[in-house]
Design goal:
Blueprint lengths: L6 H12 L26 E3 L5 E3 L13 H13 L3 H7 L1 E3 L1 H11 L4 E4 L8 E6 L2 E3 L5 E3 H8 L6 E4 L2 E4 L1 E4 L4 E6 L6 E4 L2 E2 L8 H10 L7 E4 L6 H6 L5 E6 L2 H9 L5 H4 L3 E5 L2 H4 L8 E6 L13 H10 E10 L12 H12 L2 E6 L4 E5 L6
Parallel strand pairs: 14-15, 14-17, 15-16, 17-18
Antiparallel strand pairs: 1-2, 3-8, 4-5, 5-6, 6-7, 8-9, 10-11, 11-12, 12-13, 18-20, 19-20
Helix pairs in contact: 4-5, 11-12
């Protein structure tokens, strides 16, 4: 069952989508500029305490009494955008504070600049004309918006058909927000304020490389149980014979499709992507199929079933004799509640039959192997 987003998470999402909220307890919750939602004209909404949205444009939407504020706003945004998300992925320009700051600095010395429009993968010539930065033949961004991007260091912005939007979405199905967050190299995924990648003292790229070194050499058949943005999967594909990657969440897949550094997931023929729940997909696999299993699940609170003995037994079963398991645990609750998740996982993996079980503190991973003999 999905965990409901907290009021703080919902408010944070709304503010990132529509700008600062105007709080008046009895009546107005937010004033919204339609251009932030992908439209081409300005209008205002008043959201009453009962949850009903009153709009100057009756063709946009009318929220249900008691409706969730963020849900209704996202529904409105989807209508205004006209279902163009698929087209957007193919033509979207992505900018972070780093690229915006670089352009602003270069424009102090002239009207020409070179920057990346895909978060550092490639470099493109851009020009400044009459207060607008022309990024391509069809896309431009105002200097004011470029300054806004430069001042926001924890978000990635999409430029598409005259709009500038943060890469963030709210899911009615999961009641969570999903966001791409810039780092020194590859973007990190953030879900309802929780980072899905380690960025303290490392980067998503360096972290994925360090984890794979724990089970090197990476060859044969590899399984990634919880793909996310797929960094481990496509790095493994560079040396493995095949990689099977499972991802349950539609919203995570959408973030991966938008992320320039995840495109190998959808282009590399050695990667087989399965859209499904690992707890349902993996029991259907045959025995001894994989040389390496990478298991990087969400937190124990969100996905306890992915830490259960029954699931671990399936991971043991599908590994070839001598095959290796790489299990990321992190260190949740280790300070406040003195919970040692890594120690608990280590004990339970040994209990279901794994051998050579040990914890690597540098990567916060537990590494184990299937015994060479018959189970």
């Amino acid at each position: 069952m999905a965990t409901a987003a907290t009021p703080e998470e919902l408010r944070d999402f709304v503010e990132q989508l529509v700008g600062p909220m105007v709080l008046k307890p009895d009546r107005t919750v937010a004033r919204i500029n339609n251009t932030n939602l992908g439209g081409d004209r300005s209008w205002c909404d008043a959201i009453t305490s009962g949850g009903r949205i009153r709009t100057r444009d009756p063709g946009v939407m009318s929220g249900p009494p008691g409706g969730n504020l963020a849900q209704v706003l996202v529904s409105s945004a989807d209508r205004i955008r006209g279902g163009t998300a698929r087209k957007r992925r193919s033509s979207v320009i992505l900018l972070s504070s780093a690229q915006a700051s670089e352009m602003l600095n270069q424009f102090q010395h002239g009207n020409q600049s070179r920057t990346s429009l895909d978060l550092g993968k490639t470099e493109t010539a851009v020009s400044l004309q009459e207060g607008y930065v022309h990024l391509s033949n069809e896309a431009r961004v105002s200097l004011d918006n470029l300054r806004r991007i430069a001042n926001c260091e924890d978000a990635i912005f999409a430029v598409w058909e005259g709009t500038v939007e943060k890469v963030i979405r709210f899911s009615n199905a999961t009641l969570r927000t999903y966001k791409l967050r810039p780092t020194a190299d590859w973007p990190a995924l953030e879900i309802s304020g929780i980072l899905m990648h380690r960025i303290k003292g490392t980067t998503p790229k360096r972290d994925a490389e360090a984890k794979l070194r724990l089970v090197s050499p990476v060859h044969g058949a590899v399984l990634d149980t919880c793909m996310g943005l797929g960094y481990t999967a496509f790095l493994a594909a560079s040396t493995a014979d095949s990689v099977t990657a499972i991802e349950k969440d539609d919203n995570v897949l959408e973030m991966a499709r938008l992320n320039p550094y995840s495109q190998s997931l959808f282009q590399e023929p050695k990667i087989k992507l399965i859209h499904g729940d690992a707890t349902q997909v993996i029991p259907g696999f045959g025995n001894a199929l994989f040389d390496i299993v990478n298991h990087d699940p969400p937190t124990l609170r969100i996905a306890g079933e992915l830490y259960a003995d029954a699931f671990y037994a399936h991971l043991l079963r599908i590994l070839k004799p001598g095959g290796k398991l790489l299990h990321y645990t992190g260190a949740p609750g280790s300070r406040g509640r003195r919970v040692d998740l890594a120690a608990s996982v280590t004990r339970r993996l040994a209990r279901v039959g794994f051998a050579k079980v040990h914890h690597d503190s540098e990567t916060s991973c537990v590494v184990a192997a299937r015994p060479s003999g018959r189970l």
